[in-house]
Design brief:
Layout lengths: L21 H7 L12 E3 L4 E6 L7 E5 L2 E5 L6 E5 L6 E6 L5 E6 L3 E6 L5 E6 L5 E5 L8 E6 L4 E5 L4 E6 L6 E6 L6 E6 L3 E6 L9 E4 L4 E6 L5 E6 L2 E6 L5 E6 L6 E10 L4 E9 L3 E6 L4 E7 L4 E6 L5 E6 L3 E6 L61 H7 L3 H11 L2 H13 L3 H6 L3 H14 L6 H14 L1 H6 L1 H40 L1
Antiparallel strand pairs: 1-28, 2-3, 3-4, 4-5, 6-7, 7-8, 8-9, 10-11, 11-12, 12-13, 14-15, 15-16, 16-17, 18-19, 19-20, 20-21, 22-23, 23-24, 24-25, 26-27, 27-28
Helix pairs in contact: 2-3, 3-4, 6-9
């Protein structure tokens, strides 16, 4: 009669696919185009420390890795050119507002200016005493200046045409690692440093120092202006903080959704069909990309990557996303958007959130799936689920025991060379009263294997109670065979030697116990 079991109800959780909101669907839509699907991610040998997008369509983008800058085409996402005229690692990169020039800072403290189209090396700006970790152009209309920050704790404002440093902006007490230009004024910009400070500068009053200081509380890794120009976001440690500059540097919110250091921030935008909404994208060493809605102070989307993330960039039309890792992988994704250029020649539409489909296709008897309907149906809360019994994989000796082939099962267990399995089979044969019969029927080689097993494991306390008795029975039953074979004599001799050594050890331990016990009793009384 088959074994019966009770039917127990089990409520399965709702499928995760049913709760996907439109914004999550929007951010998941960044995929590798079919024409380059064979290369899901561009791989380099060194960490990708910085990514910058051209403000002008088709929005080419550049990535720094080691002493090289690779420029990718915004049309087909393939590498278009390479810049390698550096004497040390390239640390930061930035496009000019018209997309024609490219500035790169390296670890020697030099800032290189290239023609983005011809790759010509136009300028070398040398003034930093240590690595130039950040470089940025003004966003609006200024094409003649840029600012930089370095490990010498100095923020510099440059005249690119004459290769001269106009102002040394002092105030930081540690490495300057990040910054951002104001979207509303060419004369104002931010800098973030490892001294936990974010400083707001205005080059119209360079001698007065920074016009505002914000204390992030941890070494600042990235800082970015929000589109209005009146608020900023800073990243340091595992925190991203929102500040109100117009309100005098008031802290509005602190987000701690990452588990490790946040390494880079950038701005993105989605459209719900009614109004555009801005988002902050953050990446971290924990491998997560987080999308933060600062109007509601909540994380709206999260994505996991297999490696620590160092840099992130989003094209101005929000159609291309690039993420760089510490392992040299560059994850590139593109959304399918319909581009519509306005009359003023500005950037294109951001694209709307994709809504859920309104209806499902009706299955008909002429469809193949019609005959398989219901197989993937999700159970409801009131359904009773019956688990399908799992097929148990049996070892060779288990199969033989089921067929009552005791000797073959015993030999198979000995050949497995697992003492736990061998002893388990022996105990089963003892329960069936077949162990001694199996020993009697063993041939010379099989008997040698058994004696070798007894020699190895008979003195182990875990198996000694069974194996010592079995060793005595084996010698009694097969004494004639052992006398006739030299190999079997050697096994028995070795077994005897091991047992005698174990007995000596046990006697020594008993002597030690006899000496220690009175001492412990005396010590306990005191």
């Amino acid at each position: 009669m088959a074994e019966t079991f009770p039917v127990k109800p089990k409520v399965r959780p709702t499928s995760g696919g049913a709760t996907v909101n439109p914004e999550a669907k929007y951010w998941r839509s960044y995929k590798v185009p079919k024409d380059i699907e064979t290369v899901p991610s561009k791989s380099f040998l060194y960490p990708i420390s910085s990514i910058s997008f051209s403000p002008v369509a088709p929005h080419d983008f550049a990535a720094t890795h080691s002493a090289t800058v690779t420029v990718f085409s915004g049309k087909d996402l393939n590498p278009r050119s390479t810049l390698s005229d550096f004497s040390d690692t390239a640390a930061s990169i930035a496009y000019r507002c018209d997309g024609k020039l490219l500035a790169v800072g390296d670890l020697t403290g030099t800032i290189h200016v290239f023609d983005a189209k011809s790759r010509s090396h136009l300028r070398r700006l040398k003034s930093h005493a240590a690595a130039a970790r950040h470089v940025s152009y003004p966003r609006a209309t200024d094409k003649f200046h840029l600012f930089s920050g370095g490990d010498d704790s100095v923020v510099k404002y440059w005249d690119v045409a004459t290769e001269t440093c106009l102002f040394d902006l002092l105030g930081h007490k540690d490495y300057v690692r990040c910054g951002d230009a104001s979207p509303v004024s060419d004369e104002m910009f931010l800098s973030g440093s490892y001294d936990h400070k974010v400083k707001l500068w205005d080059v119209r009053v360079p001698k007065s120092g920074s016009i505002m200081d914000l204390n992030h509380g941890k070494p600042v890794e990235s800082v970015v202006y929000l589109p209005s120009g009146g608020m900023i976001a800073s990243a340091g440690g595992n925190e991203v903080k929102i500040w109100d500059l117009i309100g005098g540097g008031k802290l509005l919110y602190s987000m701690e959704s990452h588990n490790k250091t946040v390494t880079s921030l950038c701005m993105g935008r989605v459209s719900s069909g009614v109004a555009d909404e801005d988002r902050i994208l953050s990446v971290s060493l924990d491998g997560y990309l987080k999308v933060f809605d600062y109007s509601k102070f909540k994380v709206t989307y999260s994505m996991r990557f297999p490696h620590p993330l160092l840099s992130v960039g989003l094209s101005p039309d929000c159609s291309i996303r690039a993420i760089g890792t510490s392992k040299g992988n560059l994850y590139i994704g593109r959304r399918k958007v319909k581009l519509e250029t306005d009359d003023s020649g500005g950037h294109t539409d951001w694209g709307a959130l994709e809504e859920e489909p309104q209806g499902k296709m009706t299955l008909r008897p002429t469809y193949f799936r019609y005959f398989h309907r219901g197989q993937n149906q999700k159970p409801s809360e009131r359904d009773f689920l019956i688990k399908r019994s799992k097929k148990v994989k049996l070892a060779e000796y288990d199969k033989l025991l089921k067929k009552f082939r005791h000797k073959e099962a015993f030999v198979a267990a000995l050949n497995s060379k697992n003492p736990e399995n061998v002893v388990a089979v022996m105990e089963e044969l003892v329960a069936r009263k077949k162990l001694l019969r199996c020993v009697s029927n063993l041939d010379e080689n099989e008997l040698g294997s058994l004696l070798l097993f007894l020699q190895k494991y008979s003195t182990m306390p875990r198996y000694a109670s069974l194996l010592m008795k079995l060793a005595t029975k084996v010698i009694e039953l097969r004494i004639e065979d052992i006398r006739c074979t030299d190999d079997l004599k050697v096994h028995v001799r070795n077994l005897k030697r091991d047992i005698e050594e174990e007995l000596k050890i046990q006697r020594s331990l008993l002597e030690i116990q006899g000496m220690v016990s009175p001492i412990l009793k005396i010590a306990a009384k005191r």
